[in-house]
Structure to design on (666 residues):
């Protein structure tokens, strides 16, 4: 139900609002960077806001940047004994209050997966936790589903507000804004927001009710079914067209795998954490040279298994997928994860 | 006979002696085709042929070496087969080529711009037009407005090498001079402007390597220098320098090999015009060695051989 305490935010007031918020915080918003590419970028006055469709990339980088320095190091040679060196380590965490504007419900559900793994799990990651604590999320609820959307099959909804601080619903001339948390209540105090009229509240409800229902995937007991389907023949078949690139994992709002490398430059260097992809051969390549997942079928089985079996087993039934459909849209061969799940449900 | 019927007839004849035939099938909605692996006669009817068949299926061939397979290919795709044969990465006797003279395939980004996320109910073609029916109504566009850039300058519409040709052969319909137009435009910029151009475009690269893995000639696959750990040639950072470096490395490793199929650019989820970088190298190769990759199976690629004096390179005055 739409809150009767809602506010109204006119479309034209958004750019100046973002610029104003940008004085005290880092503001990320979906900006058009090329004809069909929309990315969450630091807001700059004059940029072209792109709020009509889901962004090309998810906003996961806001809590989990693609490249993150864990530490920097520098060796110094002892002038009296050149065989001896000392090493100095440095580590700084630079966390700024951040406002994420225009994320979709599936993007926010993706961030919840990072919470499960990095901020509320058995191990706490300082950097991800600090960034999440400093984050305010303004979610733009969807008024339609794209042909690749399947959020309702994985526990979400185009109009879900869980995890958001402020939720916007598109209405005539702007957005109906509902504060979900105290952070959201603080935001709507800005003069850009005006109390919503009764007819705008009703319109928002109409917009939400009019969204066409998505097909429902048969995911009942999919955790167990995938475990039973360990034979590579099935995975060979479904991954036959896969080219083993990392597009699906990097555009995924919930994929959180990373690698850590030392990047030396002479006597100094840095240790960085970067996104990794389970679709790459190197992902499980061991120092001995042995690789437990040498073929793309092995790796594809892991991708599906992780999201729909191991993750729900480890995290109280939650899928490691928010149904945003970007993996389908961005795949060079349009491999459809929904079809693979339907097949797995049938055969498992 | 319609082209698709011709294709199916050839496959029906050949399938028994083959492990599989790689073609195209219908994807998750009416505007998406997908690579389709035809393994039994029951699969043959699922094959499609139309301007949505964008993929260069030749990329799958090197991994299938040792099996006898059939493959459907367009004119541009056939050049990749020629190049792989020259490099002995596939064997001629292991492949049955069903060539299809092609009038162009679409650019999915242009299609996306047309439908803007709406659900597609139907898609149909005539020789000159595409009609897409979405949940919001019918849209018709001229085919030339949605064709991939490579098709608008296509010089090899008919496959160069084939065992069966489905449909009638025809020669290039587009002006040859147009191939390098985009490259010349960038060459016209001064060096700092050129660098700024590429830094702006490549900044949105996510290092997913779709460009590499979709490329029919990027055959190092799992052993690429870009993600080797030992030696650690390449930083895993995702700054713009590393992205530019990666694209330059990719393009240079294709010097004299790139057949201009455009899979790199098509596969890019960030819509970066990276085919232009390959085209620039192709242009240099043409000027230096008077050579075009993948057009003659009997050729030796210029960087695979050595001549004391290159006829097109004046090394000294004596």
């Amino acid at each position: 139900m739409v809150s009767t305490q809602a506010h109204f935010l006119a479309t034209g007031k958004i750019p100046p609002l973002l610029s104003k918020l940008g004085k005290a915080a880092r503001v990320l918003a979906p900006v058009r960077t090329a004809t069909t590419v929309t990315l969450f970028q630091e807001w700059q006055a004059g940029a072209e806001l792109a709020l009509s469709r889901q962004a090309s990339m998810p906003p996961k980088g806001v809590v989990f940047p693609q490249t993150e320095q864990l530490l920097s190091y520098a060796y110094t040679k002892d002038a009296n004994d050149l065989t001896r060196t000392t090493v100095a380590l440095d580590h700084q965490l630079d966390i700024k209050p951040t406002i994420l504007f225009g994320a979709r419900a599936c993007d926010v559900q993706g961030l919840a997966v990072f919470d499960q793994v990095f901020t509320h799990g058995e191990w706490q990651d300082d950097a991800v936790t600090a960034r999440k604590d400093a984050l305010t999320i303004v979610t733009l609820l969807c008024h339609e589903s794209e042909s690749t959307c399947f959020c309702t099959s994985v526990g979400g909804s185009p109009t879900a507000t869980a995890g958001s601080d402020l939720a916007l619903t598109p209405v005539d001339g702007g957005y109906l804004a509902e504060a979900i948390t105290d952070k959201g209540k603080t935001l709507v105090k800005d003069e850009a927001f005006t109390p919503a009229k009764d007819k705008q509240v009703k319109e928002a409800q109409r917009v939400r009710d009019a969204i066409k229902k998505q097909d429902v995937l048969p995911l009942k007991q999919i955790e167990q079914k995938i475990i039973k389907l360990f034979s590579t023949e099935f995975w060979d078949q479904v991954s036959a067209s896969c080219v083993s690139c990392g597009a699906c994992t990097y555009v995924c709002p919930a994929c959180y795998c990373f690698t850590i490398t030392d990047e030396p430059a002479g006597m100094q260097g840095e240790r960085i954490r970067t996104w990794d992809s389970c679709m790459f051969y190197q992902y499980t390549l061991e120092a001995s040279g042995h690789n437990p997942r040498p073929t793309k079928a092995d790796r594809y089985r892991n991708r599906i298994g992780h999201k729909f079996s191991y993750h729900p087993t480890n995290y109280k039934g939650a899928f490691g997928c928010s149904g945003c459909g970007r993996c389908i849209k961005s795949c060079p061969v349009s491999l459809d994860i929904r079809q693979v799940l339907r097949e797995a449900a049938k055969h498992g | 006979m319609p082209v698709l019927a011709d294709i199916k007839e050839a496959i029906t004849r050949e399938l028994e002696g083959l492990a599989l035939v790689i073609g195209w099938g219908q994807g998750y909605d009416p505007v998406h085709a997908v690579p389709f692996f035809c393994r039994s006669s029951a699969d043959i009817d699922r094959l499609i042929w139309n301007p949505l068949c964008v993929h260069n299926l030749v990329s799958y061939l090197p991994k299938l070496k040792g099996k006898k397979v059939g493959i459907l290919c367009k004119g541009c795709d056939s050049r990749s087969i020629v190049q792989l044969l020259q490099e002995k990465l596939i064997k001629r006797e292991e492949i049955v080529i069903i060539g299809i003279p092609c009038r162009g395939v679409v650019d999915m980004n242009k299609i996306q711009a047309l439908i803007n996320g709406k659900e597609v109910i139907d898609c149909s073609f005539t020789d000159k037009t595409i009609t897409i029916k979405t949940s919001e109504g019918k849209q018709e566009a001229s085919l030339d407005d949605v064709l991939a850039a490579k098709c608008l300058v296509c010089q090899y519409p008919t496959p160069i090498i084939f065992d069966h040709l489905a449909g009638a052969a025809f020669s290039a319909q587009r002006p040859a001079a147009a191939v390098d137009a985009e490259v010349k435009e960038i060459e016209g910029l001064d060096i700092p402007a050129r660098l700024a151009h590429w830094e702006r475009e490549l900044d949105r690269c996510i290092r997913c390597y779709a460009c590499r893995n979709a490329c029919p000639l990027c055959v190092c696959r799992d052993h690429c220098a870009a993600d080797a750990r030992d030696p650690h040639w390449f930083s895993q950072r995702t700054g713009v320098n590393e992205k530019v470096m990666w694209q330059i490395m990719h393009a240079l490793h294709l010097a004299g090999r790139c057949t201009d199929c455009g899979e790199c650019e098509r596969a890019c989820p960030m819509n970066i015009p990276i085919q232009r970088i390959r085209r620039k190298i192709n242009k240099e190769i043409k000027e230096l060695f008077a050579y075009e990759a993948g057009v003659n199976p009997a050729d030796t690629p210029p960087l695979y051989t050595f001549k004391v004096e290159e006829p097109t390179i004046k090394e000294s005055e004596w």
User: Anything to note?
Assistant: DSSP finds eleven helices and twelve strands in chain A.
